[in-house]
Amino acid sequence: MTDTLSIDRPGTPQPPVTLQRVRGRAAIVQAATGLRRLHQAGSAKILRPRTYGGPDQAVLINTAGGLTGGDRLDVSAEVDPGGALVVTSQTAERIYRSAGGAAQVRNRLTVGAGARLDWLPQETILFDGAALDRQLDVTLAGDARFLAAESFLFGRAAMGETIAKLALSDRWHIRRDGEPLYRDRLDLCLPRGGSDPLRDPAALAGHLGLGTVLMVTPDAEARTDGLRAAISGLEGLTSGVSGWDGKLLLRILARDGQALRRGLLAALGHVRDDPLPRVWHM
């Protein structure tokens, strides 16, 4: 047998390099009496820690350790009528520099009549050059109760990181009984022709953390003043609270990751009657 040695000369076309991509899919269905279905594939995993006295919990894990361009994660959580579930993540999600394309994340939540779902993932850290396309779709039935908290960190201040290039699209679509209830969209792109939304006084004004908390319950508006009081005076935070039509919305701009975490802990401690999942304190 003869081996042939091939020598590539300048100008010789080379086959494209195929990069390994992260693919993950996780789904959980919670009945009023406990777990009804659990599915996980690829890098997406779900842990169910033992809980005492509160709703069952589902802890999301991305075993890949982060996402970059071309990766995709799909998560779905459904709570049957009368059930309750808290969904969180084991740690912050990291979105690394993209070599092409955006990381895609699709989260789909369904909450039955009389049921409750708390969607409480920990922070998403965006590195320089990151590209993320994320969408949250929520379907509520009847008197379902829903709480969501999402947050971004633009680089890590302790490491001296700055963001010069970024492509971020984050969308929330929430419906109740088929009718639109709440829509939100955040689009940030850097560099951007003479303006820098991360440092522009009319945008993030140099803050490295951005957080959103949305509560949809019959008593949401009644918690408005208490929530303002809970987060007022916290160092390194700028915030705004609004309550209307059974919804309570909080926006947080934070100086750094520690200030962002303080604000989220204070806010969630006020609007929730149960302790936060233990992973939030690790």
Shape: globular
Average pLDDT works out at 92
Count of separate DSSP helical elements: 2
| N→C terminal distance | 60 Å
Largest sheet: 10 strands, mixed
Q: How many DSSP E strands?
A: 17
Series of H and E elements: EEEEEEEEEEEEEEEHEEH
What are the low-pLDDT stretches, counting only 5+ consecutive residues below 50? 1-9
Radius of gyration: 21 Å
Share of helix, binned: under 10%
Any idea how many domains?
1
Strand content: over 45%
What is the structural class?
mainly beta
Question: Care to describe what's here?
Answer:
With 282 residues, the protein is mainly beta. The chain has one domain (23-281). Helix content is 8%, strand content 46%. A hairpin with a 2-residue loop joins strand 1 (23-31) and strand 2. Helix 1 packs antiparallel against helix 2. Required for maturation of urease via the functional incorporation of the urease nickel metallocenter. Belongs to the UreD family. It holds the Pfam family UreD. It is found in: Cytoplasm.
Fill in the keyword field for this structure.
mainly beta, ten-stranded mixed sheet, seven-stranded mixed sheet, 2 helices, about 45% strand, disordered N terminus, UreD, nickel insertion, nickel cation binding, Urease accessory protein UreD
